[in-house]
Amino acid sequence: MRPIVQVRNLCKSYRLGQGQQGGRQGTGRDAVIWALRDVSFEVLPGEVLGIVGRNGAGKSTLLKILSRIVRPTAGEVDIYGRLGSLLEIGMGFHPDLTGRENVYLNGAIIGMSRGEIRRKFDEIVAFSELEKFLDTPVKYYSSGMHLRLAFAVAAHFEPEILILDEVLAVGDAAFQQKCFRKMQDVIQEGRTIFFVSHDSAAVQRLCGRALLIEAGRLKDDGPAETVVKHYLDGAAAAAARD
Taking Cα atoms as reference points, which of 53, 155, 94, 118 lies closest to residue 63? Predict the structure, then answer.
């Protein structure tokens, strides 16, 4: 089977300028930080791939490169299919627009056509459980209401490849379970999913395979349960040393 995503020798560096010294720019060379170094992997159609690692490991950089938000310093990424990226739920919501208007705005931002939004509008609203507040400007929404509407829009987007970053940390416990069940439905539809979460149990339950990123390098790639254990064991050892 042909991979739907191919990542080859992916590298990303950032150059940090020297600080001011006595009112003058330092004369040393700028520091280079490598967010990713020589990361390679392939993903088959329909795979649900978890990505785990500590804060600052390079997970977000990898997702931004896959999403075409950031250009790599070196290496190649080939993506064969329509990709939807949900890196920040609710990004683009306008506080002065109503919930109804923001459904269309946010849907367009994440890549849905107006026809798609119109067809799924009633499902989105029903999922959010915010029918009574649909014509209220979202600046009057609580943070939980805001996230519920945003997830409802995101959950009804149907690209071939879906990138999800911490999307299940939404609302109260009951709504989180509803979101989890929705993600299980999405998986059953056979879409390819990249799932990043600090909830190790969710990664194990949703993903068949996982990647472990450490200090910008791919340290492990295998069954989700095995990779998550590797990650947790390493985190525990690091905490013990500290």
Answer: 53
Whether the model pTM is above 0.85: no
Range of the domain at 178: 5-241
146 in Cβ contact with 93 (< 8 Å) = yes
CA–CA distance, 172 with 70 (Å, rounded to integer): 33
pLDDT digits (tens, 9 = 90+) for 13-40: 998 764 444 444 444 556 889 999 999 9
Asked if residues 49 and 209 have their Cβ atoms less than 8 Å apart, the reply is: yes
Into how many domains does the chain fold? 1
Q: In terms of Cα–Cα distance, which of 6, 10, 7 is closest to 73?
A: 10
Q: What is the CATH number of the domain that holds 172?
A: 3.40.50.300
Parallel/antiparallel/unpaired status of strands 161-165 and 192-196: parallel
Q: What is the pLDDT of residues 180-225, one digit of tens each?
A: 888 888 888 888 999 998 889 989 999 999 999 999 999 999 999 9
